[in-house]
Design brief:
191 residues, NADH Oxidase, five-stranded antiparallel beta sheet, 5 strands, binds flavin mononucleotide
Length: 191
């Protein structure tokens, strides 16, 4: 019996620990294309993505961990080991950036970030719908200039927004309890 599409949204949860195989070429195209359906004021298409796949994930992990240390940020031996252990199995990282385009003064800059976040959310949902595990992380040097430069996302023009890790879940996820929307919604009944 097929799953009603809305149930995919209800059931999505982040899956950090993934392994190969990563998305097939066709599925990766679908995941990235899902990002293109995000709401986007002014059709600015601010989202930018860089694929880091296979062996390149390990090389990127080495570089980014080095960059964190060179920036003088705290990184305990334990955190480094757990990060390396996690990434040793991840088959695909999608590095996420938003082009800020300060020449556009009509649409507030915050809206570019929101559109990029919406694109990434679409990609998380698409990965989930296709049976992959996916997880948004702002670790691995997300706020380190050397990392931005290495990806050609110069901080003057882009805001780096972290990574999506996508692959095959290593273990099945337990169902997760979500909050009741009523706790977050009120009704305006007029002045
Ligand atoms: C922009 C953004 C950045 C995130 N960065 C991290 C991170 O660096 N480390 C972390 O443990 N969780 C991070 N998270 C949270 C996880 O991606 C995930 O949402 C969280 O574990 C809850 O799981 P859920 O999505 O199934 O509710 C981030 C989430 C967002 C939206």
């Amino acid at each position: 019996m097929s799953v009603p599409p809305i149930d995919y949204l209800f059931n999505r949860r982040s899956v950090k620990f993934v392994q190969a195989p990563g998305p097939t070429d066709e599925h990766l195209s679908q995941i990235l294309q899902a990002g293109m359906s995000a709401p986007d004021h002014g059709r600015l298409r601010p989202w930018r993505f860089t694929l880091i796949r296979g062996d390149a994930v390990q090389r990127w992990a080495d570089f980014a961990i080095g960059a964190i240390k060179r920036a003088g940020l705290p990184l305990t031996t334990q955190k480094e080991a757990s990060t390396r252990d996690w990434l040793s199995k991840v088959p695909l990282l999608v590095a996420l950036a938003c082009r800020m385009d300060s020449s556009n003064t009509k649409i507030p800059e915050d809206e570019r970030l929101l559109a990029t976040g919406a694109a990434v959310t679409n990609m998380l949902n698409a990965a989930h719908m296709l049976g992959y595990g996916a997880y948004w992380s702002t670790g691995l040097g997300t706020y380190v200039d050397e990392v931005h430069d290495a990806l050609d996302y110069d901080a003057l023009e882009y805001r780096f927004m972290g990574y999506l890790a996508i692959g095959t879940p290593i273990a099945p996820s337990d169902p997760i309890e979500r909050p009741d929307y009523r706790d977050f919604v009120k009704e305006w009944t007029g002045l």
